[in-house]
Amino acid sequence: MIDLITTKYTYLVVVALLAIGAYVMIESDNFVKKIIGLNVFQTGIFVFFISAAFRTSGKSPVVQSGGGGGPFVSPLPHVLILTAIVVGVSLTAVALGLVVRVYESYGTVNEDTLEEVLAND
Amino acid sequence: MTDALVPLLVAVPLLGALFVVAAGLVSERGPPAVTALVLVAQTALAGWIGSRALLTGELSNAVGGFVAPYGIELVVDGLSAVVVVLVAVVSLAVLVYTVHDDPGGTAFYTEYLLLVTGLTGMSVTGDVFNLYVFLEISGLATYALVASAGTGRSAVSALKYLLFGTVAASLYLLGVGYALVATGTLNMADLSVKLAQVGYDSPLVLASFGFVVVGLATKTALFPLHTWQPDAYNDSPDSVSALISALVSTVAAYALLRIVYTVYTPAFFEAVPVARDALVLFACVSIVVGSILAVAQSEVKRMLAYSSVSQYGLVVVGLAIGTRAAVFGAIVHLVGHAIMKGGLFVAAGTVDDLTGATTVEGYAGLADRFPVLGGASAVLMLAMVGVPPAVGFAGKWYIALGAVRAGVWPVAVVIFASTLLTLAYFAILVERMFVAPASPSVRAATDGGAERLGGAATPPRRLLVLVVGAAVVAVALGFAVTGLETALEPTLDTLLS
């Protein structure tokens, strides 16, 4: 158990982030908070990729002329996550734009209130 | 075989989207014209590449000269050829309706082409991470298109769709992460070899399969992961609901088929039979519950949306059974459903424009007033039920045949029951249209009330062409199925080996 915490603690962070993100998305009535939960959830996945790429005493993956000098940290997941972060930022922007539209139309960002307003519509 | 034209399939609509922005600066009529031009080019290109892929076998291209498994590979085989052509043709056809309906300006047409880019990219990519990126591109474009109705309700639906869709795509990404940790590769062909070496019963592989399937099943809208879908279809502009109902979930289901057979391969199902059983059960529940929910609806667009939940269940059950006939049936039903559902949404939108009728009751007496529109919709509905010789029959027939041959009788019973339920909800609509006396809204359209309401007295000719065209294609495809089977034979051999 102690071993797990000391050597694989990044994976525990992943689990914590995924759980917190999912909990906030499900439990919160506020759409803005839901979007924050979504971001936390996605961050959990990003950390998962990064920690999978990590090698203890691994160097940054810049090969010297003449080669050699390993072990290196795998560059591939970093590149993937850079892309995924960009995707996540775009999604957050669109989501917040939609929240603004919802607020302009109904004057609320609360899901329960919104359901009531829509039901009476 | 390497082919330099394959990347153009993605590049043409992507660059076209930029030209739309430029055209929007010049004149107001620019964006639709440029979009039409780009989609015509895209259809021609898809037809050319697709026919070559079907005739000469798989075409591939290593993007940027980085050879797989290190670089991203674009692959067109028989199956992706069918989907690419479907995406190009349907988006061009729906554009006819969109231009008529005219919901938006530059932004709308840019999103339209970006959606085509994302869907085409999903169909041709040979890389699981690249699939995630295209999944999100098409997702982002869809959310924006749903919200383009401009009402508060459509913004709420788009926001819910976004939350669901993003979680789905994130779960898919997590599944890709597990596969990457297990194998160190992202190329689909390479993964299929390395996953087998790792061992199919490895927890990493099982977890990656679970996450990928749940993610894509949410995008496909299987019960109980469908809750975003009826609102999104119902509250978006009519032309957008026609487009996304025909294409978005279809391509997600295609991606599921691709991942299951190219990445995990049938050997995975043999090694882990519980994965197949779970998928079959999941799909069967979706078929039955989707149909029952559709019967319970009073609004036509919502009914069509729930009907999709059940029809995609059929597709997934076909791909999960995994015999040759069942997988072929799944492909046929995927294509057939896109055409029939797209046509029905165009018809529903046209009726709404003409009479303001959106409910089943409102459709009463419609066929007396608009015989061609009513007739063509009835043909599409009966095709969806599975009346021979339409394509809806062919798809269900092959899936049921595959189920019986694989010895899973309960699935054949479920398919039969779902056919009856499909008949139940479409029969009500057909009965309303042809037998019942005219409803107030239809009467208003007859005595000129619709003009006062701002609608036209007769359906515009090009929309009639679109709906009748969909009905003709739905029936004609039923006859073309044997030809398609021969053309897809090499692809199915590779997929199922």
Quick structural overview:
The complex is a heterodimer of chains A (about 120) and B (about 500). Chain A contains five helices and no strands. Chain A is about 75% helix and about 0% strand.
Describe the structure.
The complex is a heterodimer of chains A (121) and B (497). Chain A has 121 residues and is mainly α. Helices cover 74% and strands 0% of the residues of chain A. Chain A is built from five helices and no strands. In chain A, helix 2 (9-27) packs antiparallel against helix 3 and helix 3 (31-53) packs antiparallel against helix 4 (75-106). Chain A starts with a helix and ends with a helix. The model of chain A has no long low-confidence stretch (mean pLDDT 86). By secondary structure, chain B is an all-alpha fold. Chain B contains 20 helices and two strands. In chain B, helix 2 runs parallel beside helix 4 (106-124), helix 9 (229-235) packs antiparallel against helix 10 (238-271) and helix 13 packs antiparallel against helix 16. The longest helix of chain B has 36 residues, at 461-496. Chain B is globular. Mean pLDDT of chain B is 86; it is low at 449-454.
